[in-house]
Amino acid sequence: MGDMTAPTQARRVLLAAPRGYCAGVDRAVIAVEKALEQYGAPVYVRHEIVHNKYVVQTLEKKGAIFVDQATEVPPGNIVMFSAHGVAPSVHEEAREGRLATIDATCPLVTKVHKEAVRFANDDYDILLIGHEGHEEVIGTSGEAPDHITLVDGPEDVANVEVRDDSRVVWLSQTTLSVDETMETVDALKEKFPNLISPPSDDICYATQNRQTAIKELAQQSDLVIVVGSKNSSNSQRMVDVAKQAGCPAAYLVDFAREIDETWLEGVSTVGVSSGASVPDVLVEEVLAWLSERGYGDVEIVKTAEESLTFSLPKELRRDLRAEAAALIEERTGRPAAS
């Protein structure tokens, strides 16, 4: 027993698994890279393809141009829709703007869109649980604006009004925290006892898995660092979940250089994870940064196995440059200038 340091002082890192890229993000990022390879630059992308600074900057260097609206893209070009999904009106704008489109919406988001359409067709009032202004919420609401009411958390429930409380269903933004959603659902059920739940759980598997892992970590950590961007809803939720699970401090950083050394004071265990739109190279940098400061011992905390993959958007199998040129020709009656 010659070791003078008490085991409690041992510095270690608990690394969450699963973390980082989910299948929908992976598919969207690869879709942009493939489109650039196949069709050459520029490929326009409406909104950030995924909510991550580094990913967006990397793709810009390769020739992707990010725009706020499809209407900003010059006719005869290719525009890609982000993983968060878009309202039908945006597809319409692209058609009118003579743009060839690639839809990189995550299939799990598409599923929620389809549910919204189906319930709207059956004349239900749809209560969409989500954050106001979030791209995914805007896209889903656009599927059936007359039938959808946004409910932004349990405190919003008091203001909700429906036409017929026997025909009400809830749907949710896929990147919320499971606990947060169920708290809102419980409040809604109290107000509308006949509230129907969606046929399948809409909180995405990746969001759920990353939150389960961080909950586990947080209970054993003095500090939790989540790698992710401020505008990433699922990354923000992970910080909230860590704090709710009892971790004294949890922070969101885009890059290792944003970590503040003072956070490490009195800390023996650091939990590390990353949001669903974060490439692992950024996590590696954080681990290297921690290692330089004595936290070299890394233990993986695994709470789930992820094997889901999605096939790439089918539009990548077509000659979109030719389609875009044909759209211009159709509008003007003249061949597009090459």
UniProtKB/TrEMBL annotation:
The coenzyme or cofactor needed here is: [4Fe-4S] cluster
Residues bound to [4Fe-4S] cluster are 22, 106, 204
4Fe-4S in keyword set: yes
* Keyword terms: 4Fe-4S, Iron, Iron-sulfur, Isoprene biosynthesis, Metal-binding, Oxidoreductase
Recorded catalytic activity of this chain's protein: isopentenyl diphosphate + 2 oxidized [2Fe-2S]-[ferredoxin] + H2O = (2E)-4-hydroxy-3-methylbut-2-enyl diphosphate + 2 reduced [2Fe-2S]-[ferredoxin] + 2 H(+); dimethylallyl diphosphate + 2 oxidized [2Fe-2S]-[ferredoxin] + H2O = (2E)-4-hydroxy-3-methylbut-2-enyl diphosphate + 2 reduced [2Fe-2S]-[ferredoxin] + 2 H(+)
Active site per database record: 136 (proton donor)
- Identify the metabolic or biological route this protein is part of: Isoprenoid biosynthesis; isopentenyl diphosphate biosynthesis via DXP pathway; isopentenyl diphosphate from 1-deoxy-D-xylulose 5-phosphate: step 6/6; Isoprenoid biosynthesis; dimethylallyl diphosphate biosynthesis; dimethylallyl diphosphate from (2E)-4-hydroxy-3-methylbutenyl diphosphate: step 1/1
Asked if the record carries the keyword rRNA-binding, the reply is no
Binding of (2E)-4-hydroxy-3-methylbut-2-enyl diphosphate: at which residues? 51, 84, 134, 174, 232-234, 277
Cofactor detail note: Binds 1 [4Fe-4S] cluster per subunit.
The record's family statement is: Belongs to the IspH family.
Name of the protein described by the UniProt record: 4-hydroxy-3-methylbut-2-enyl diphosphate reductase
Gene name? ispH
